[in-house]
Amino acid sequence: MARNDTFFLRTSFDTSGTNYVSDNIDISAYTDPARGRVLVVDKAFISFSTNGGGPVLQADIDAVIGHRSLGAQACSEKQTALVPMSNNSLFMRSNLYASNVVNDAGGIGTMGLFEETSALNPAEYMGGFIIPTDAIHVGVDATVAWTAELKVGFMFEVHTEKLSLQRIQELLVSLTAN
Q1: Secondary structure, 3-state, the chain
Q2: Which of 18, 22, 38, 91 is the most exposed place for a label (fewest CB within 10 A)?
Q3: For residue 66, how many other CB atoms are within 10 A of its CB?
């Protein structure tokens, strides 16, 4: 359950073909991990739209027939690619799948499938997910370039917290468990 002293952090960016695209939200103004002051994520959300901000349409998938997918993640450590669910820094993940079908030979593609699978979107944490670093890393990757680039938005409801020495030690043990 979110606390009454929460605030929001947001970022968004466009995909770029099949490249891993990422951003780091600087949270150093809110934290001092060496002294136990950390940022805690209570809720997190990912949204997908066209790079103009509208809904994703069949023309964004492919002109005629085709399929596309896109993975999005949020982590407490900087990454260079999408990470598996076993990565301790991963705290939000969502995948988007879309395809067009053709109803008649030579026809224009119509949207046949648009599915978002969300293992962790929206993410809501009882007690919060502690970010023991100075940034929240967000990133996206597409397996095949979309006809039009997509805009992926991230929003985090967060609060700051001062951890006890015992809690810091527990956190360190859990982060090195892999």
Answers
A1: CCCCCCEEEEEEEECCCCCCEEEEEECCCCCEHHHCEEEEEEEEEEEEEECCCCCCCHHHHCCCCEEEEEEEEEECCCCCCCCCCCCCCEEEEEEEEEEEECCCCCCCCEEEEEEEECCCCCEEEEEEEEECCCEEEEEEEECCCCCCCEEEEEEEEEEEEECCHHHHHHHHHHHCCC
A2: 18
A3: 16
pLDDT digits (tens, 9 = 90+) for 58-84: 778 776 667 889 999 999 999 999 999
Judged on CB neighbours under 10 Å (0-12, 13-18, 19+), 98 is: buried
Amino acid identity at 58: Q
Residues 11-45 pLDDT 10s: 999 999 999 999 999 999 999 877 888 999 999 99
Q: What pTM was computed for the model?
A: 0.85
Placement of tokens 């990912």 in the chain: 46
Residue with tokens 């006890």: 164
